[in-house]
Fold this sequence. Notes:
Layout: E1 2-3, E2 11-12, E3 18-20, E4 42-43, E5 62-64, E6 81-83, E7 95-98, E8 128-130, E9 133-139, E10 145-151, E11 162-170, E12 179-188, E13 191-200, E14 206-208, E15 217-226, E16 229-236, E17 241-248, E18 255-261, E19 264-265, E20 268-269, E21 277-286, E22 294-301, E23 307-311, E24 321-325, E25 331-336, E26 339-341, E27 347-353, E28 360-363, E29 366-368, E30 370-372, E31 378-381, E32 388-396, E33 399-400, E34 408-412, E35 446-451, E36 456-459, E37 481-486, E38 492-497, E39 502-506, E40 524-529, E41 535-540, E42 545-549, E43 567-572, E44 578-583, E45 588-592, E46 607-612, E47 618-623, E48 628-632, H1 640-643, E49 651-656, E50 662-667, E51 672-676, E52 694-700
Parallel strand pairs: 6-17, 8-22, 26-34
Antiparallel strand pairs: 1-7, 2-6, 3-5, 4-39, 7-19, 9-18, 9-22, 10-15, 10-21, 11-12, 11-18, 12-13, 13-14, 15-16, 16-17, 19-20, 21-24, 22-23, 23-24, 25-27, 27-31, 28-29, 28-32, 30-31, 32-33, 32-34, 35-36, 35-52, 37-38, 38-39, 40-41, 41-42, 43-44, 44-45, 46-47, 47-48, 49-50, 50-51
Amino acid sequence: MHKRSGVGRLAVGAVAAFCLVGAVGVVGVVGVGRAVGVGGAASGSSGSTPAPKPHDGISSFSLRSSPGSGTANGTGSGTGTRWFGLQHDNAAGSTDVSPGPVRWLHGHGVNGHGVRGSGIHGPEIHGLESTNWSGQIDTGAVFTGIQGQWTVPTAQPSSPHEYSATWVGVDGVNNSSLIQVGTDQNSGSGTTTYDAWYEILPAPAQVQPEPVAPGDVMQAQVTEQSPGTWQIVIQDVTANWSASGSFAYSGPGSSAEWIEEAPTVGGSQSTIANFGTMQFTNMAITSPDTGSSGLTPVSLEQSNGVVISYPGVFDASTQSFPITYGTPVPVINSVSPSQGSTGGATSVTINGDYLTGASSVSFGGTSVPFTTNADNSLSVTAPARSAGTVNVSVTTPGGTSSSSANDQFTYVGSSPTTTEPPTTEPPTGQPPSSPPSSQSQSSPSGYDMVGQDGGVFVFPIGQSGGFYGSLPGLGVHVKDIVGMVPSPDDKGYFLVGQDGGVFAFGDAPYLGSLPGLGLRVQDIRGIVPTSDNRGYFLVGQDGGVFAFGDAPFVGSLPGEGIHISDVIGIAATPSDQGYWVVAGNGTVYAFGNAHNFGSATGTPSPVSGIASTPDGGGYWIVTQSGGVYTFGDAGNYSSLPALGVTPTRPIIGLVPTSDEHGYWLIGGDGGIFAFGDAPFVGSLPGLGIHITDVVGAVPTSL
């Protein structure tokens, strides 16, 4: 924006229509991704990305007349409708106050905590961090229009100059193009100023002469009229004026945004003005394929990493969300491991949102030293304490985290590590299910396990099959692997990181991942492949589902208006037309053709995994204590509590045999518990290997 005495040549004209919409289609994200293609051991490359998947939910602008005295085509009396001036002459000595493309923190890409498909959840929403933007961005499609409405916020008077710009626009997330329109609220020397403006980079912003005041209701849209020609419309409903113009623009249309920004002033990054809380409403996008788009929240961080402006809940019923000036209260999403010895000394990682700037961490009120990691997680050592469960809390400039099931840490006494297979007598009243009548495959003869670093351990030792590579073997160094699943024929496997990065080994195909979109998250909790080995689903801790390859997107928790943050796994139906998502409290959510056979709520310990039967007629749910809960046609072959066995480390998952007549329970230390016809062929503690970060396992064949 240029503050100047002249604003170019303006002409009066009629706007064909001011378009307002009541629905926006934000139903999922299908991404391209982080690939590893070293020596052929892992497949995929960032250059071979799949086309975005079409999802349900197309929406477009609908027409309605402008408020005030104008008719549907914009003609009429009063203040009237004005076309934007097409001249961009700059007055000498003008002050440049220009919104521009987002400048992500930490170089290319962003430091993220949760990208969502089909809507956003909770006060803890935060997807990306930026040095100058806060709001919501929509990516994953080619956008041909954006709509938004807001009430001009009141900037608090300040002595130093501070600025904020409220706008809607297209592009600017992953490129230097941008077409945008909005208002600004600026403060300095104890006074405040308000303006309307538009900008098409690289040209400077054009301030409009019409009056704008705090409390005015603004409506704005940017739409493509024809290839290379776009229309910008802004209307002050309160002051009863509107302005519009058609302009040449050739940006790629790769993103759409609703933003509160700290703009560039005189070529430098400004300090954002205290705008209180504002709200975008009547949000809309147009695109040939809105079904493959998805909202991503953006928070504005100061140079010290502390958030100073952040978005709130996206409300699908009103197509709206707020943006608030200030620092949000921290939210703990997970404590890993969530169990440790009463003697203390357990190394614990705290993951969450808005943890930057942490000043203290406590276990049940006992303060402990901590270290802040590069991904903004916190590393601590649990103090000694008597047996029982306590809440972990984190304090930052935004306050102290609220207690929830996600921040609980349980102290237990010493218990033996069980590495031999326990007996398979079922607990009283729970006889094993009858073998399925249909012909079944032979049972696998071994299993692989994976650690957080992507290291793979194969059992039995020395078997010829089952090992198809590992990340350390490729020279890839990570510490965020959260899951491992086999390819349908057990001749390969996928590893997934909490950032949504996917690594494919053996005959498992690489079909894309989240980081390739520039979407950096830290809350992916699981992966499951399609039965034809041509796609896979990822799930986030809020139940957002991401589909790759031929995996169909059939829904997500945020898309259903369900706002939780403790999802721990996903399982798919054999037809791949449905999936189950399970939360840490045992609640099961079914999508597509997946039948909900029931939930395992009220369990003595948190749920840690779900696995479906091969025919899709049921599923197993396992808890951290090794409790097994069967639904549908899933067979019950006993559990650790039924045998009086307490695992040294929490159970992290259940791996069924292919014939449905048994399963393995996997401990976080690599301890293996075999039930039914699942063979016990070794474990890490049995080899004298002492680790605590096993995160997944798959069955193998010789």
